[in-house]
Amino acid sequence: MLTAENLSFSYSKKPFIENMSFHVGKGEIFGFLGPSGAGKTTLQKILTGLITSYRGSVRLCGVECKKHGSHFYENIGVDFEFSTLYEKLTARQNLIFFSSLYTRKVRPVDNMLARVGLQNDADKRVSEYSKGMKSRLNFIKALMHDPEVLFLDEPTSGLDPTNSRLMKDMILQEKATGKTIFLTTHNMMDAAELCGRVAFIVNGSIKALDSPHNLIMRKGAAKIKYLYYDGQERTGECLLSNTSSDSALLQLMRENRILSIHSSEPTLNDIFIDITGRTLQ
Ligand SMILES: Nc1ncnc2c1ncn2[C@@H]1O[C@H](COP(=O)(O)OP(=O)(O)OP(=O)(O)O)[C@@H](O)[C@H]1O
Ligand SMILES: [Mg+2]
Predict the structure, then answer these.
(1) Same structural domain, 140 and 226
(2) Ligand 1: does its nearest atom lie under 6 Å from the Cβ of 229?
């Protein structure tokens, strides 16, 4: 679906994105993760044909991104980092307008508004919308023409847990119908849940690219930590894979002396800090 080969780009004379290469297959949810200023949105702008002054090659659906024609946008939907809605128009008017730009059959406006809980605010001007309402509207705007490829730049940023869940479920529903999805996020939990593979981007370079599971396994096996009573509270730990043969743990369990027990898997966040030496914030 997408192949980048030796992609290079900079806003200035100083090198930024240099010789980046990666491939994304049809039906994948592919995550771009990285700290603020790493180049995630810049990369999305290149892949969606908005930045054309790059070197190397990026082909999306067989089309070199900088040479795309207008048909290119029939197949892709973009949920931009910042709201791209007309504030003076209502939500319904915005969706009708943007849908009219496509030649392919579009999804029903009312149904899409209802899916993100905006059915009762359909005729309100966007200027009267809250931040989370705008995020949801901006998101469905990208889906209206049922595109094959979706670019979502921090779609759950600023959403409450219920709406964040709703949006993640919609992203998974799109994947289930075979869509290819590029997802930029700072949220490691979302990335681990949604993405088949993730690329860690720091200062314009991919520092690691793999499935969340493989990246986590690099950090080493999961452990369990337990608290037990031995005249006073004490802690112990062993590898999760060794619980059936760890004699100290087995003895404590036989004697019912375990007070609490937790598994402690590394998280994607731990991996990010390990790989890049930086936090995501
Ligand atoms: N239009 C522009 N002109 C010049 N420099 C820019 C432009 N847009 C972005 N940059 C610079 O490019 C770098 C990468 O920006 P980008 O928006 O791609 O980061 P990001 O990874 O999306 O960050 P965030 O997580 O904060 O959204 C930053 O140093 C930024 O200042
Ligand atoms: Mg960004």
Answers:
(1) no
(2) no
Question: Count of CB atoms within 10 A of residue 140's CB?
Answer: 25
Is residue 197 a contact partner of residue 30, using CB atoms and an 8 Å limit? yes
CB-neighbour burial class of residue 65 (10 A; exposed 0-12, middle 13-18, buried 19+): buried
Q: Residue 196: inside a domain, yes or no? A: yes
Residues 211 and 227 in one domain: no
The answer to whether 44 touches 212, Cβ cutoff 8 Å, is no
Structure tokens at 134: 């705008």
State the distance from the centre of ligand 2 to the C-alpha of 262, rounded, in angstroms.
36
37 CA to centre of ligand 2 in angstroms: 7
Q: Is the CB of 11 under 6 A from ligand 1?
A: yes
What residues make up the domain containing 233?
Answer: 221-265
Tokens of 265: 């898997």
Rounded Cα gap, residues 265 and 257, in angstroms: 24
Q: How far is the CA of 8 from the centre of ligand 2 (A)?
A: 18
At 80-136, the pLDDT tens digits run 988 889 999 999 999 999 999 999 899 999 999 999 999 999 999 999 999 999 999
Q: Do 196 and 251 lie in a common domain?
A: no
* Residue of 156, 203, 161, 190 lying closest to 31 (CA atoms): 190
The structural domain count of the chain equals 2
Cα-based distances in Å from 21 to 5, 40, 59, 60, 90: 4, 14, 11, 13, 42
User: Considering every ligand atom, which ligand is closest to the CA of 37?
Assistant: 1
Query: Do residues 162 and 25 both lie within one domain?
Result: yes
What distance separates the 2 farthest-apart alpha carbons in the chain?
75
**pTM of the full predicted structure?**
0.85
In a domain, 273, yes or no: no
Same domain, 211 and 82: yes
At 70, the pLDDT band (50, 70, 90 cuts) reads: confident
